[in-house]
């Protein structure tokens, strides 16, 4: 795939990402204004927990499937039959659903609203497995318009319904909102599965029964290294908001939740670029074209744009929070500043991780994420009880810097190996 096609694919995915993230920020702002900080903190903590588990349900095999297809796009083949890979993915989704359901069941003893949300939202993990399979096929064959549609179109629809519900009924209880949100989550995912398989049939992709080049145990064993980074990606988001709610208070959790959407706007281009870059770099490696130079350029570009974004956050932080979230969260400005520094170092992974996955070095990512998780596990109980949400983002800053250093060292190691080859 040429660079012009990579650019066009990134633009298509960026448009979808802007729509999705814009809807997410708008709905978070509505909820922050409508609900009291205590209820808002409950809602966002449960949402963060359920969303983190989706990363486990939807990765691993899809990443390996994307890599396998992109390495051999000329033949338009997949290495495993649809039924076998989809069956295994659904099993992973069911395990993630059970985990979220059990957490929700335990959570109900102390927080009935958040527990109810998790228990209902857990159902969404199973259909998401089918969406993840479809996305892997679309990404591998570089059907980025379809990928953008299925990756981002569900978010504005389900969040808009919740936003209208919450905004129109200001007296609505948090329990009702969580129930409505979770059910919409499930219904829209079912609709997305139906549309995804319609397009698979239309493209003739779901008629492919595998090449027989890879046995099922071998294919699944090769997928496990790609599952490990997905689990490690999920661990820190799973910990942050619930940890603040548990170790400090729901109000502190609400302060953190109020600033998170602004940080999520930062990688609007990085995430689509990462999605499009992964199959591109796999194709280049399969053709014997060196891709390390592209990675170093991407790291430099992210460093420059991150600096500009950090300056904007420092300058406009107070105004952004007051306009979107309301003056009751104006004390969260220092949290936003520290979180922006943490995000600065975290966003380099959107250039480095696709390169490592394409090279078959996903375990390098896992090492960096394990270090990040260990820092959080050790320092959260120390700093959060004393400093609340500010202590949480300070820990994230330390952890992200450590993971960034490990990633850069891995890239330099590969660079030296290529130079001596």
Structure description:
By secondary structure, this protein is mostly helical. The protein has one domain (3-420). 83% of the residues lie in helices and 0% in strands. The chain has 17 helices and no strands. The chain has helices at residues 3-34, 37-57, 61-70, 82-107, 112-121, 125-140, 144-152, 154-168, 174-203, 216-247, 250-264, 270-286, 292-324, 333-346, 349-358, 362-387, 389-420. Helix 4 (82-107) packs antiparallel against helix 6 (125-140) and helix 8 (154-168) packs antiparallel against helix 9. The longest helix has 33 residues, at 292-324. It is globular. The chain crosses the membrane at residues 12-35, 47-65, 86-107, 113-138, 183-200, 226-247, 259-278, 299-317, 329-348, 360-381, 387-406. It comes from Candidatus Raymondbacteria bacterium RIFOXYD12_FULL_49_13.
**Helix proportion of residues, in percent?**
over 70%
SSE topology string = HHHHHHHHHHHHHHHHH
Envelope shape: globular
- Mean pLDDT, as a whole number? 75
């Amino acid at each position: 795939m040429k660079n012009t096609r990579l650019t066009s694919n990134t633009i298509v995915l960026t448009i979808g990402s802007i729509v999705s993230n814009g809807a997410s920020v708008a709905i978070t702002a509505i909820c922050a204004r409508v609900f009291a900080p205590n209820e808002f903190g409950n809602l966002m903590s449960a949402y963060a927990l359920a969303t983190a588990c989706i990363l486990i349900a939807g990765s691993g095999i899809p990443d390996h499937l994307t890599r396998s297809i992109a390495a051999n796009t000329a033949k338009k083949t997949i290495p495993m039959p649809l039924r076998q890979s989809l069956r295994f993915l659904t099993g992973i989704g069911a395990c993630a659903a059970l985990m979220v359901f059990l957490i929700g069941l335990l959570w109900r003893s102390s927080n009935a609203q958040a527990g109810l949300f998790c228990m209902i939202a857990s159902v969404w993990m199973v259909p998401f497995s089918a969406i993840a399979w479809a996305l892997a096929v679309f990404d591998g064959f570089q059907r980025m318009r379809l990928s953008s549609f299925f990756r981002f179109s569900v978010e504005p629809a389900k969040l808009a319904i919740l936003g209208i519900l919450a905004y129109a009924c200001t007296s609505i209880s948090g329990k009702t909102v969580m129930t409505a949100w979770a059910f919409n989550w499930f219904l829209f995912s079912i609709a997305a599965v139906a549309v995804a398989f319609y397009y698979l049939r239309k493209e003739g992709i779901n008629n492919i029964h595998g090449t027989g080049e890879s046995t099922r145990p071998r294919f699944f064993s090769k997928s496990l290294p790609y599952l490990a980074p997905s689990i490690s990606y999920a661990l820190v988001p799973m910990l942050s908001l619930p940890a603040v709610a548990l170790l400090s208070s729901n109000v502190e959790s609400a302060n953190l939740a109020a600033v998170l959407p602004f940080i999520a706007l930062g990688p609007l281009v990085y995430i689509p670029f990462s999605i499009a870059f992964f199959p591109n770099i796999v194709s280049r490696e399969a053709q014997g074209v060196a891709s390390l130079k592209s990675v170093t350029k991407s790291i430099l570009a992210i460093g420059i744009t991150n600096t500009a974004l950090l300056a904007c956050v420092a300058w406009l932080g107070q105004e952004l929070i007051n306009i979107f979230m309301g003056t009751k969260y104006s004390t969260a400005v220092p949290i936003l500043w520290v979180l922006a520094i943490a995000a600065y170092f975290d966003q380099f992974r959107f250039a480095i991780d696709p390169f490592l996955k394409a090279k078959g070095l996903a375990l390098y990512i896992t090492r960096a994420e394990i270090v990040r998780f260990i820092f959080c596990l050790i320092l959260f109980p120390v700093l959060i009880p004393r400093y609340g949400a500010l202590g949480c983002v300070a820990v994230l800053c330390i952890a992200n810097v450590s993971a960034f250093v490990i990633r850069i060292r891995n890239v330099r190691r590969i660079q030296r190996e290529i130079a001596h080859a």
